[in-house]
Amino acid sequence: MSDTEIITDGGRRRWSAAEKLRIVEETLDDRLNDRKKPRRRYYKAQDAALVPLITTLVAARQTYGYRRITAILNRQLRLEGLTLVNHKRVYRIMKAHNRKHPPKAAAVLY
């Protein structure tokens, strides 16, 4: 008997694990047997319009991180009357196109 089947106890119906967790039985079976579906790559068609804008900003300000780039980009987009972008989206775009600024080196304390 698998973990997802309904267990009866003396004619009384008991909750199955899937019903108790309120998930589909196939999902529970996948979780119990460590089967995972591969995730799809991130892709949005609107990102293609943002890539050249981000690239020019990063080229002009090489020490700026994704949050500062997002602030400047949103300022430009607001002036043009376009939709603003989220900092997480800018981070994903910069990461996908190798435009991320390397992290700061840790300070050495003596």
Number-wise, the strands total 2
Which structural category fits the helices and strands?
A: mainly alpha
Oligomerization state of this entry? single chain
Biggest β-sheet strands, sense, barrel: 2 strands, antiparallel
Q: N- to C-terminal separation?
A: 63 Å
Any low-confidence stretches, pLDDT <50, length ≥5?
Answer: none
Helix content: 40-55%
Task: Provide the residue-averaged pLDDT.
Answer: 79
Order of helices and strands: EEHHHHH
**Which geometry do the CA atoms define?**
extended
Q: Looking across the biggest beta sheet, what order are the strands in?
A: 1-2
Beta-strand percentage range: under 5%
Our count of domains comes out at 2
What's the total helix number?
5
Description of the structure:
By secondary structure, the protein is mostly helical. It folds into two domains: 1-39, no CATH class; 47-96. Helices cover 47% and strands 4% of the residues. It has helices at 17-21, 25-32, 47-60, 66-80, 87-96, and strands at residues 8-9, 12-13. The chain has a two-stranded antiparallel ribbon. Helix 4 (66-80) crosses helix 5.
How are the SSEs ordered, and which strands pair?
Layout: E1 8-9, E2 12-13, H1 17-21, H2 25-32, H3 47-60, H4 66-80, H5 87-96
Antiparallel strand pairs: 1-2
Helix pairs in contact: 3-4, 4-5
